[in-house]
Design brief:
single chain; 134 residues; alpha/beta; five-stranded parallel β-sheet; two-stranded parallel sheet; 5 helices; 7 strands; globular
């Protein structure tokens, strides 16, 4: 049994890790944290750098939950494909993703990784959304 969590270094990503941690404890299993780097590299705000991943690792270690970090570089692929690939590879029992509020036009033009994950996941998906900040 494994819980896979898609992580981006923002409040929603942190909430996704928090929920994955709670689910992993409840299921007595490990976590695989997935942060994707696309063709733009570390210039994208969704790409976690070493400090971000070190903070996630420190939190999971402090909680005593077995974990690993997957940091795939996808080139011209999609983040959703990478997350779904990891979930399939490890036979995930649960996939946790954060959802960001986007306009219908934004979704139509750019697509939605969370939506692709929800529709293509090989296991149940827990979608979380951080409260909006003003």
């Amino acid at each position: 049994m494994t819980v896979v969590v898609g992580y981006v270094p923002d409040p929603t990503g942190y909430l996704a890790v928090t929920e994955a941690l709670r689910e992993a404890r409840w299921r007595a299993t490990d976590i695989v944290v997935v942060n994707v780097v696309d063709s733009a590299g570390y210039t994208r705000p969704t790409a976690a750098d070493e400090l971000d991943l070190d903070a996630v690792t420190a939190r999971l270690e402090a909680e005593g939950v077995p974990h690993s970090i997957s940091h795939p570089e996808i080139g011209n692929g999609t983040a959703s494909d990478a997350v779904l690939g990891v979930a399939t590879e490890v036979s995930a029992d649960l996939l946790v993703v954060g959802m960001h509020r986007r306009s219908p036009v934004g979704k139509a033009l750019l697509g939605s990784n969370a939506q692709r994950i929800l529709l293509g996941a090989p296991c149940p998906v827990l979608a979380v959304r951080a409260p909006e900040t003003d």
